[in-house]
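Protein modeling request. Please complete all fields; requests missing the sequence field cannot be processed.
Requester role: graduate student
Desired output: 3D structure, token encoding
Chains: 1
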Amino acid sequence: MSLGKKVQLNTGASIPQLGFGTWQAEPGQVEAAVFEALKAGYRHIDLAKVYGNQKEIAQAFKKAFGGEVPNLKREDVFITSKLWNSQHRPEHVAGALDDCLAELGLDYLDLYLVHFPVAFDESKDPHNQLFPLDESSSHSDKDVKMYDGVSIVETWKAMTQLDKKKARAVGVSNHTKEHLQALIDGTGVTPAANQVERHPRLLQPELVKFCAEKNIHITAYSAFGNNMVGEPLLFEHEKIKEIASRIGATPAQVILAWSQVGGHSVIPKSVTASRIQKNFEEIELSKEDIEKVEAIGKAEPRRFNIPYVANKPRWPVNIFGEPEEKDAPHKVVV
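Delivered output (334 residues):
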């Protein structure tokens, strides 16, 4: 069984390019899905505190590393998780990692990321009260209460000081090139990775170029689009389907192959065994087909994951500088 291609992080560690995501994987399904992914050959699993499913995923790890996936050991699998927005104060960061490891039943993570470059309000229980609400908010559903008293540089500095036996590499997620530059300037430490929304409608060429120059690995999430916004997923796009039909692949395989061009990794999610297995059957795209996929993003650019407009409860913060965020009262504190 081929276990897929790997690339090197700036730490020297190897990360498999094709991973398995667990965002929006429902309780009662995610244990079986992760176990199926490990059986199928995935060796890169992406997790997060806020997904609310790490304790269930721990059961899949326990089975897989306990002998139910033959010859599979913990050290064979690259496991990523993330620091949540309510845990950004420097004094909370080490405890957040310990809390994460306890949920997963693991001794270490291969990669630990700052999930977003924003902090939520101070909480008496930062590891469990994940969405503190602003009771003074006039918005119909109440907004998340933001906290402007800690900068992304302060949080990143605490991340860089974590025990390397517990977090072998540290990085970020949802950070723009301006955020990344602020972290590097403020600490002298370059993140190992930046996990971002990236798909055929969101190419992010400037961010991709910046990360390549700084040797920051890019992991793409929402590679198929976002099924929370009421728009068709990208494997339904006619141009993707045309390429897939012509080369004898699935539309999902076309998107996943494109996502890995340039040495990036990608973390598709599925809870269906047949799709999990099919997505792992990697293909190669011609230069012409890569250009056809990228033409979609040039003609139909779209970012789906904008917390100010897409999330409930809403986050009143401008993260990406998109037009939809221009009225947000808070901005990223650098």
